[in-house]
Amino acid sequence: MVILKSPINRLAKVGPKYQELLQKLEIYTVEDMLYHFPFRYDDFSVIKKIDEITEGETVTIRAELLDVKNIFTKYGKRITRAVVNDESGKLIIIWFNQHYLSKILIPTNTYSFSGRVGAISGKLAMVAPSFEEYRPGSLNTGRLVPVYQETAGITSKWLRSRINDLLFNIGSIPEYLPLEIINKYNFDVFDIAIRKFHFPQNLAEVDHAKKRFAFEEFFLELLRVESRRSQWSLKDKGIELKIDPSKLENFITQLPFKLTPSQQTAIQKITIELASQTPMNILLEGDVGSGKTIVAVLAAYVTYLNGYKTLYLAPTEILANQHFDTFKKYLSSHNINVELQTGSTKPKGEWDILIGTHSLLFNEADQKTALVIIDEQHRFGVEQRAKILNIKSENKVPHLLTMTATPIPRTLALTLYGDLSIAQLKEHPNINKRITTKVVTDKNRQETYKWIKQRGEQAFVVCPLIDTSDKESLENVKAAQTEFLALQAGILEGVSVGLLHGRMKAIEKEAVIKQFRSKEIQVLVSTPVIEVGIDIPDASIIVIESAERYGLASLHQLRGRVGRGDKEGFCFVFMSNNSRKAYERLKYLENIDSGIELAEIDLKMRGYGDLYGTLQHGFKNFKVADLSDLETLEKAKLDAQNFFPKLNGYPTLKEKLEIDSKLVGNN
Ligand code: ADP
Ligand code: MG
């Protein structure tokens, strides 16, 4: 019998080869296959007779195949040409470069053909339609046809047929959401919703099914949040890290700058929570360049003074290296041991503060770790804490400080993770170091590069793609590798140009950054993924290519890489097309200097896509649920809080969540 948790190869026609291919779509079990939802539908539901069709419409016809043959045109095109016939008339159908079709299509058989009606030499014809042998209950023609995310070797057509067989054979699938919920919101039960989502009669059915699955995603996730929260808060205590305020004050006065008011507030908040028995969980939000690092340094210093250790997790090795230097700069004179651990470096001795990448979490727990800092991190709150639960000192949980430059709306953070504290760095330390920003049209591109060459200062050139063979490579979108070669041989001849992108090895990247830092490289061409937090004080110019492809908040983060030292910063925003709308949007960068404000403009102009696109990475990857749908989120939150304590009364739901029964009911 097929059950939801069965491995996918239990299904007929899914052998080892398909099993492997399906892994690319993250389909491992029968259940995963059902949850591989269509992302759109081809509307082939209009069925017409051949004499009723008109040019330009999308239809399905049912007709007998009279004849099929392969033709080479005089321009070398390979065409398959078929003639079909129903009781109303004849029609020509052609396909390009698919000569094998002439072997598959069998004259005198009846087929359904779905697609757009075009014209060939003035006569109506169908070009490259979908087709299948005609039988009642067709999957690929004559209806709303689901289209799925595919991968090499797995087509939507194949998925349709497997999912359809599965739904036919599996019988009625039991519901696992509480009936109270189904009734309260008038949802379809699972068995109905899943069938409608894959093979709907109309789009209203899809909408209705989606409502259920969107709710379900939030609800299940929020039940997990409840579970982790109960796990965290009941059993665990934090280590009380107290501080003599004068010692902190002393340290602060020795800094080369004066703290901004919100840095001060953040530090105050942190010292209070570090001193408490409840483990700290603070999210420090602050624009690029708002000075988050020094706040982290101070938290680590407090921890050190209490005789405990700090782990500092950076998203990449390059940033780990950079923070290692910063921490040493501030702390070595206080006799504090700062050490680095990356793929290529191991700590050289005892440490008070260990800086590294996320792999630090897999270290054997050090008994004295009382603070974990996670930098430039898009995952927030509970999820992280669940991981660091393993690192316990004296059976107590370390405090957690998460730092991010992503502006997360407060309501969203609080709804998802109610017990997270938020601290914000609102102002930039040095207000008069604004980065002069110019949106540059194509005709001024050469001019701009000449200016950069003349100025002779260090510059970044950021391109969205790595090389032009990238699948997104469109006509004018710039690729780092190509641009690197072009600039070097062209307008920047004689200037030392470097290249940095995500596909290079860690040591290669490190070497390039080092050269850039030591000014052996003057202009660094890179992809944007590289490093949000990279700090090269002498780089004063940044060119952003194909800028229309980014949200304003992301562009703002990118330009934050320059103007960090004493030099005046410049940002040149290049576009790869002439869109008026994009130009007007980008123009906001010239006058607005706040990441949050820019994120709000994006929100108004482009909808939630950009902001929540970034956030989606951070939170769980929801397939159907939309993080901007705060109403559904709120409802799911209340229901999760209500149902979590009585979860033992809902065994199928609990099984779905795979939550340990020990955790339930004692909240
Ligand atoms: P981010 O928030 O992006 O991580 P950083 O911590 O890297 O920002 O700080 C950016 C730059 O600002 C660093 O060079 C840092 O030394 C400097 N800085 C931080 N705080 C202040 C301050 N209060 N006054 C002046 N400069 C500061
Ligand atoms: Mg930073």
Q: Topology, please?
A:
Layout: H1 16-23, H2 30-34, E1 40-43, E2 58-72, E3 78-86, E4 89-96, H3 101-104, E5 110-120, E6 123-127, E7 130-133, E8 144-147, H4 156-169, H5 179-185, H6 190-198, H7 203-235, H8 245-253, H9 261-274, E9 281-286, H10 292-305, E10 309-313, H11 317-331, E11 338-341, E12 353-356, E13 369-374, H12 382-388, E14 399-404, H13 410-416, E15 421-425, E16 436-440, H14 445-455, E17 458-462, H15 480-489, E18 497-500, H16 506-517, E19 523-526, E20 539-544, H17 552-559, E21 570-574, H18 580-591, H19 595-606, H20 609-618, H21 630-643, H22 651-657
Parallel strand pairs: 4-6, 9-14, 9-15, 10-12, 10-13, 11-12, 13-14, 16-21, 17-19, 17-20, 18-19, 20-21
Antiparallel strand pairs: 1-8, 2-3, 2-5, 3-4, 5-6, 5-7
The protein binds adenosine-5'-diphosphate (ADP) and magnesium ion.
